[in-house]
Amino acid sequence: MSDQERQDNNAGTEPQAEPEVPPGEPEAPPGEPAPAPGAQGLQEGEPLWGMLCHLTALAGFIGIPFGNIIGPLVIWLIKKDTMPFVDDQGKESLNFQISMTLYGLAASILLIVPIGLIAILGGPFLIVPFFLLIMAVSVVVIVLVILASVEANKGKKYRYPLTIRFLK
I want to staple 89 with a disulfide (CB 3.0 to 4.6 A). Which of 37, 50, 122, 160 is the partner? Predict the structure, then answer.
């Protein structure tokens, strides 16, 4: 076979470049998928339990009193000693939920005074902005919990904003 024929036969079969592995990342054995970025060193199931630490906080939105604290607390208490990632994410979720509960209680107390004054003055339509603010904060909490759940499921540690660190 001539050189020209070899080039024609190999034209469509150029060797595929191996995907580059970032420095410090372990290479996957042949035939197995590469580990998720940030998930190195985690035990099997840790990302799932870490995600559940965040998702169970949504129990407060379905009518369970203090479910936003009880859900993450139960997961954290069960898995904190055997899974370091779950210990970290459980504390983070609990800190955020306790902070949001305290902020909500403070806002409710501050809301009672204006509602009393508004009721006395006869202007119930002035209450609407307060309730819109409460609804907006609830939506932000739900979005942050979902974001934290997705990141934890990837094996990445998530840090909530505006969180008081009660558990360290």
Answer: 50
Side chain identity, residue 34: A
Domain parsing of the chain, residue ranges: 44-168
Terminal-residue alpha carbon distance, the chain: 72
- Residues in CB range of 105: below 8 A, 6 or more apart: none
User: Alpha-carbon torsion 141, 143, 146, 151, what sign?
Assistant: negative
Residue 21's SS3 state is coil
Mean pLDDT by 10 residues, the chain (168 residues): 58 52 50 54 92 95 92 95 96 96 84 68 67 86 97 96 92
In the numeric block, which tokens belong to residue 104? 């909500």
CA distance 114 to 133: 14
The rounded distance, in Å, linking the Cα atoms of 101 and 151 is 23
Q: In this structure, what DSSP letter does residue 163 have? A: -
C-alpha distances in Å from residue 127, one per residue of 80, 120, 165: 43, 12, 32
CA distance 40 to 45: 13
Q: Identify which of 66, 34, 36, 69 has the alpha carbon closest to the alpha carbon of residue 54.
A: 69
